[in-house]
Design a protein that fits this description.
Chain A is mainly alpha-helical. Chain A has nine helices and four strands; from the N terminus they run αααβαααααββαβ. In chain A, a hairpin with a 5-residue loop joins strand 2 and strand 3. The longest helix of chain A has 28 residues, at about 95-125. Chain A is globular and about 45 Å long. The relative contact order of chain A is 0.13. Chain B is about 50% helix and about 0% strand. In chain B, strand 1 and strand 2 (about 230-235) form a beta hairpin. Classes of the chains: A mainly alpha (about 260), B mainly alpha (about 270). Chains A and B meet through helix 4, helix 6, helix 7, helix 8 and strand 3 of A and helix 1, helix 6, helix 7, helix 8 and helix 9 of B.
Amino acid sequence: MKNKKESLGIEKANLFAQETSRRKFLQYSGLAVVGGSLVLAGCSDDDDNSGPPDTEIFDLGSGNLGILNYAYALEQLEAAFYKQVVNGSYWQNADAEEKQILEDLYEHETIHRDFFKTAISAAVSSELMLPELEFDFSSVNFGDRDSVLQTSVILEDTGVAAYNGAGSLIDASDATGAVYLTLAGKIVSVEARHASAVRNLLNPGSINFASPDVLVNLAGSGKAYDKAIAPAGILSAVKATGFITTEFTANNLPTS
Amino acid sequence: MNFIKILETLSDKELLYSKGSRRASFTKMKNIGKDVALASIPFGLASLSPKASAATAAMGSSAMQASPLEVLRFALTLEYLERDFYQMGLDSGVIAAEDQDVFQLIADHESSHVDFLVAAVGSMGGDTGSPEFDFTAGGTLDTFTNYQTFMALAQGFEDTGVRAYKGQAGALANDNTLLTYALQIHSIEARHASQVRRMRGEKGWIVKNENTLPSSFSAIYAGEQNTVQGGVNLSGMFGNVGGDDAVTAAFDEPLTMPEVNAIAGLFIV
């Protein structure tokens, strides 16, 4: 969708700059039939704002693709957050160790995000890939240490619980699915390493790195386990933060 | 797998102290590690089709995978190792006063994991006994008299634990409940690893295959320099966000069961 909207924007600019007729514009656009209807709607909007708005909301999809898009959404969120962190005044004035940790997190999450983008785009057409999301971090004070670190902890703990909850939703019955499961494992432990480190920054010398308040008890053996939360729970928690402003749905994700 | 039964057996303390000789089987296991090369896995992300390519199908080969009981038994041995290590560390007085809380928490977690896995293995009819450990590796390590050595081993055990659980995810893929439980332990081990690494002045994450433990433990980090993820070689793609150091740190790598047994075997009598 993203690419189509962008190309539409370019064509519209051409349309008005060159006073090309709508018919000619459609010839230029060279879009397939499906895209053509979007173009028409766009032109109608420009005429009088009464055209049908683009209400198409992306759904993450089903099966393993849905899980990949879900992970991609979470990694987009983390990467966008840390990008603001390393451009904020707290980070710029932080001590060397904290700067290094947060810079590393920015790098890791950016790599995770771009990895998913590459992997998904190699597997499916762009219509099936989650678009680039938009974010609003205005509730975070990037000049304030506690605001940044506490948000970081929430995102990292959420990431851990999300991947732990998604593992069993991956259909690993074929080799490709097995790769996805392993990938989830490769990433979740790094998220847990992050969570541990930032929790420790907030409360050095304590047990905050694996605090009982973020752990669960399995079978009465003690609070010694990370959470595993299904996508519905994760996405409603993420929605509550208000960080993601691009609407998308998760109506077809596997539930078992 | 009946988890109601696990709940019941967890309260059966006799199980927790049941004796069983793991010695023979682990002597055997620790010798086969070197014979099994790290499988070069032809990852294929190019297709989401349920029909996997023949090339990638080799990875899912059930011949390479342990049964769920074998996985749990394997995990139990590692948790016994960690639990005993931390308990002996706490008892020995080697741990600095300011770090007592940290290591007590980790010890408590490992003890919980042992209890959980003893119940699980027991409910599946497996052997729940503990091997005998020697954390001095035959008197060559001053583990309980030198705090630096103790912390180095702690890091090694935690990083190994993370890789060990990760390596068995595929073997548990057909049992959603067990898989999720294993993941919930796996990430806790990663929290521990990050904490201990940072207490040693390391980054919480593993950059390339850097090993700051004695060189005899380099197997713990072997393969962590991998840059190929899901068939995509990420090397050189992220020069503006930390380069290959960051790429390798952003993904933890699994170890196979024989590889882990070879590492753990150094401490099993």
